[in-house]
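Title: Comparing notes on inverse folding

I've been comparing how different people in this forum approach sequence design from structure. To keep things fair, I'm posting one structure and asking everyone to reply with a full sequence. Here's the target:
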């Protein structure tokens, strides 16, 4: 089951996102501020598969702080940044720093929750592919190491 951490300082938005994602079958944890979210990121035994964070919470740079913490915990973290105040500069900065995607919460005529679930599914596809690649590299390295030790023994 996909494990998602949702971080947002707006209680109504946080509850709505958590409810919608749980209905879609995700295992969801939540935090009501960047600091609490970062603590959960760093202290959880197994990293979250996807982190959904608001861009601007108690600090306008909160989303970038979450992004940085997520990658310090798990290089393959998939982070989706949401904002009510979308601007191109923020979106570009998030993407440069490795965010999977950047979503505006208040886009007229667009179901943000539908977009979010689609993006989470896409992020999980990429995460699974990346993990599978690492697994294959490790397996190949072990085979090569055995071949070297076998050749050296002869």
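Reply #1:
Here's my take.
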């Amino acid at each position: 089951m996909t494990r998602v951490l949702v971080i947002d300082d707006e209680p109504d938005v946080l509850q709505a996102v958590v409810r919608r994602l749980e209905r879609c079958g995700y295992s969801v944890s939540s935090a009501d501020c960047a600091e609490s979210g970062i603590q959960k990121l760093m202290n959880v035994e197994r990293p979250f598969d996807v982190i959904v964070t608001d861009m601007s919470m108690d600090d306008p740079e909160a989303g970038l702080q979450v992004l940085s913490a997520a990658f310090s915990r798990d290089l393959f973290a998939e982070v989706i940044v949401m904002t009510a105040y979308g601007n191109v500069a923020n979106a570009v900065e998030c993407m440069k720093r490795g965010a999977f995607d950047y979503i505006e919460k208040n886009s007229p005529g667009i179901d943000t929750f539908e977009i979010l679930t689609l993006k989470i599914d896409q992020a999980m596809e990429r995460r699974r592919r990346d993990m599978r690649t690492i697994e294959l590299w490790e397996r190949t390295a072990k085979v090569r190491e055995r071949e070297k030790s076998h050749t050296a023994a002869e």
